[in-house]
Structures are given as structure tokens and as C-alpha cells.
Design a protein that fits this description.
The chain has helices spanning 2-35, 40-43, 51-61, 67-79, 93-128, 133-146, 150-164, 187-193, 197-233, 237-244, 249-278, 281-286, 292-301, 305-333. The protein is globular and about 85 Å long. With 340 residues, the chain is mainly alpha-helical. The longest helix is centred in the middle third of the chain and has 37 residues, at 197-233.
């Protein structure tokens, strides 16, 4: 019960802290975008609109008001769930984000699973070969992986498995002929609950390459942090005491070394997942994946300020939620941090 109470206090504290952060981010987004040499009123009208029509639209949109009043009006609408209307797509920004956000969330979650599997396995192997000739080779290999960004992995995987061998699809979320079920917006989940296993498998095939690209690019940092944490943990006295009690090296690693070394790795995973969620943009473009990244690029290309503001706030909220979840897990795994 004490643990749940501590976690509840942490959640309340984090939520209260998140409110001013969101307000500050929203104000920065709003002011910075208004400085850009873009006239939303003119872009909302046909190219042959007259000056009078543009001025009338500016008045209707409140662009003739002082900046702080414009921000107050926008913030009031935001509290009522109205992010604005897209200038380019002529749709509510809320519906556009709602239709693309699940795709990016699915991509980021599966990529994080890939990164975790590769990172933990690679970190354990790096620790296992410590002091041997293979250590230098594996260390060089991990640095090589770390130096390659996700968009290069995307291109490599696309050329190898999509173009050369032609074993995996590399555009979109579904192949032609597959009907997309719409229940929650999460394609994989919706396919399972509606019993469309073929659609689920096809969607999963389309996600293999982008998820591998993101996961492989993220995994080297996890490998190296886990290896370093294990090396530090094995310098502590409790490891020597466990050996004196006759425990096997495997049991010492799992029950003592890994239990303590996983905490710094978990913190890094939380930070990296936040960057991963926001870093899917280039990968989505390369694979024509219809997520938030593609929506953001279209918005920037067309100077669609309402979408840019909405997407920026969405990314901020996602990072804050990820931070809260990681802090809660850290608190559960590390009893020393619990307040008595």
C-alpha cells in the first residue's frame, strides 16, 4: 500500500508540474509561429482573393488583435478541445491528429520493443565477453551501430529487403485489397479484436522495416549503458558475498547484478523513447507511413500553422506521459526511492 501511495503522490506531482510546462510550450509555439512571414488569412482563401477579402478573413480569424489576445482566444478554444482548423486540409486539426497519432504510437511502441530486445541482449553479450579478444570487436561493432542514424538504417533495410530481395513491403500500412477495420484507430489492435488475422499479419509486415530501422538505431546506446552498469554493479561487495555463498554466476547476474544495473538502462529507455516518438518523422517519410511525422511534414510544407501547433503540443504531452510512466517504473523497481 505504501508503494501505491508513493506512486500516487508522484503522479499528482508530475501532473501539476506538467501543466505549466504545457502552457509554456503552447505559448512558445504560438508566438514563434506568429513571427514567421506567413499570413494564415491569405492562405485560407483562393489565390485570386481581393485585399478586402483577406482583411475580412484576418478580422474573422482574430489576426488583427494583439498577440496576447490571439493567444488567449486560442488557449480558450484549446481548453474546450478545439485545436483549430487546418488551412490546407480544411479539416479539424483534432480529427487529423486523432487519425494519424495511433499509427505513430504503434510504430514507436514496436520499435521500442525491438530496441529493448537488441539492447538488453547486446548489453549482456558485451558484458559476457569482457576481458576477452571478442570485447574489442564487439565494442567497435556497437560504436559503428551507434554512429548510424535511423534514416540510414531505413534506406539500407529498404534497399536490401524491399528492393533487392523483395521479401517485405516498404510503403504504407496495408497492401491493396486489405480492408482496414476502424474501432480504436490502432490498426494492429483493431485487426485482432475484429478477427481479421490476415489484415493483422499484413500490417505487421509493413511495420517490420521501419520498426527495425528505429529499433536498431536506438539499441547501441542501451547496450553500452547496460554493460557499463553491470561492470559497476560487479564492483560492489554484495556480488562477492553472493559468490562466497556459493551462488552460480548465472544466478548472481539475474538476481543481483541485472536487478541493479537495469535501473540506469530503464532511465535511458524512457529518455530515448521520448526522442524515438518524435524522431519517427524521417522514417515515416521514407516508408510513406501515414503517421504524425507525415502529417507534420505536410503541415510545414504548406505552412499549416494550426496543425504544427497541435502536433507540437501532442509530442510534448507524449514526452511528459512517457516521463511519468518511466518514473513510476523506476520507483517500483528501486525501493530506496520510496518515501516512508
Amino acid at each position: 500500500m505504501r508503494m501505491f501511495a508513493t506512486i500516487a503522490k508522484l503522479l499528482v506531482k508530475r501532473v501539476l508540474t506538467a501543466i505549466p510546462i504545457l502552457l509554456l510550450v503552447s505559448a512558445l509555439l504560438f508566438c514563434i509561429l506568429r513571427i514567421l512571414p506567413v499570413d494564415p488569412a491569405a492562405m485560407s482563401l483562393p489565390p485570386n482573393a481581393t485585399v478586402q477579402e483577406v482583411e475580412a478573413m484576418r478580422t474573422e480569424m482574430g489576426l488583427n488583435l494583439p498577440l496576447y489576445q490571439q493567444y488567449g482566444i486560442w488557449l480558450n478554444k484549446l481548453f474546450h478541445g478545439d485545436i483549430g482548423r487546418s488551412i490546407h486540409f480544411r479539416q479539424d486539426v483534432t480529427s487529423l491528429i486523432g487519425s494519424t497519432l495511433p499509427a505513430t504510437v504503434e510504430l514507436a511502441l514496436i520499435a521500442m520493443v525491438v530496441a529493448t530486445v537488441f539492447g538488453l541482449a547486446g548489453g549482456l553479450f558485451l558484458f559476457y565477453v569482457r576481458g576477452t579478444r571478442a570485447e574489442a570487436v564487439m565494442d567497435f561493432f556497437s560504436i559503428l551501430l551507434l554512429s548510424l542514424p535511423e534514416f540510414l538504417w531505413s534506406l539500407f533495410l529498404l534497399l536490401i529487403f524491399g528492393v533487392f530481395f523483395e521479401v517485405l513491403p516498404f510503403t504504407g500500412r496495408l497492401s491493396p485489397g486489405f480492408e482496414r477495420p476502424v474501432v480504436t484507430g490502432f490498426l494492429l489492435f483493431d485487426s485482432l479484436i475484429t478477427g481479421k488475422i490476415s489484415t493483422f499479419l499484413n500490417a505487421l509486415e509493413h511495420m517490420i522495416l521501419p520498426c527495425l530501422a528505429l529499433g536498431i538505431a536506438l539499441s547501441p546506446s542501451l547496450m553500452r549503458v547496460l554493460r557499463s552498469s553491470l561492470l559497476d554493479a560487479y564492483q560492489d561487495d554484495y556480488i562477492q558475498q553472493a559468490r562466497l555463498r556459493g551462488l552460480s554466476e548465472k544466478r548472481i547476474l539475474i538476481r543481483h547484478g541485472l536487478k541493479n544495473a537495469i535501473l540506469p538502462t530503464l532511465s535511458l529507455m524512457g529518455v530515448q523513447f521520448g526522442f524515438l516518438f518524435g524522431g519517427t518523422l524521417l522514417v515515416e517519410i521514407i516508408y510513406s507511413y501515414p503517421g504524425m511525422g507525415n502529417l507534420m511534414v505536410d503541415a510545414i510544407r504548406n505552412a499549416d500553422l494550426p496543425i504544427i501547433q497541435g502536433a507540437g503540443l501532442t509530442y510534448c504531452i507524449a514526452v511528459l506521459v512517457i516521463s511519468i510512466v518511466v518514473d513510476s517504473l523506476y520507483l517500483i523497481l528501486n525501493p530506496k526511492l520510496r518515501v516512508r
